[in-house]
Design brief:
The protein has a seven-stranded mixed beta sheet. Strands 5-6 form a two-stranded antiparallel ribbon. The mean pLDDT is about 95. By secondary structure, the chain is α+β, with helices and mostly antiparallel strands.
């Protein structure tokens, strides 16, 4: 799962650096709470983005359902935070979440001077590209068909309510298309 704030770079240009850090802390706290509540692990923070994984140490047939539940929880948490922000005259924020399921490699990468433990592979790259695709569809969530299929197999069908099949999509840097699903009925904040 990748999540980030829509328009963050432009927003950061117009506010003081201290305010940027404060905003990120509030954002990371709210999103991370959802990740942990759904059994995920925060892999890393990348500016305003968060990269999270499920099944890191003990994979389960319910990992995709847990990640999708997390994504919907993130959207709800943002709605609540936006209500708080509006009450004090601040603009609403929007997020983009990309969710994909598949194999990945866990290990140290980098150099002798700077090693970093990370999760890498096509699955990670695809999730990142799906997150970027949220802008094209003007939706907070883009989910791969692999996630939807796994959720169906786990029996958590109710988690799929509100998702719409958007067909095969070409993602930057990938040869093959990926069938994607997006949220419906959720209007991103302005």
């Amino acid at each position: 799962l990748f999540v980030d704030i829509v328009g963050f770079t432009q927003m950061a240009e117009s506010i003081e650096p201290e305010a940027v850090v404060t905003l990120l802390r509030y954002f990371h706290d709210r999103m991370t709470a959802q990740i942990f509540a759904c059994g995920g692990t925060v892999e890393k923070y990348i500016g305003d983005a968060i990269f999270a994984v499920w099944g890191l140490l003990d994979a389960s047939d319910a990992d995709a359902a847990s990640a999708l539940q997390c994504a919907t929880g993130m959207i709800s948490a943002l709605d609540g935070w936006n209500a708080e922000r509006a009450a004090v005259g601040k603009k609403n924020l929007a997020i983009g979440i990309g969710l994909h399921l598949g194999p990945a490699v866990i290990g140290d990468v980098g150099s002798e001077q700077s090693l970093s433990f990370t999760v890498i592979g096509d699955t990670v790259n695809t999730a990142s590209r799906l997150q970027a695709l949220t802008r094209n569809f003007a939706t907070p969530l883009v989910v791969s068909d692999a996630v939807v299929s796994s959720v169906k197999m786990s029996g958590a069908i109710d988690l799929l309510d509100g998702l719409r099949d958007r067909g095969d999509q070409t993602l930057r840097g990938r040869r093959g298309a990926v069938r994607v699903w997006t949220t419906t009925g959720h209007v991103p904040p302005t």
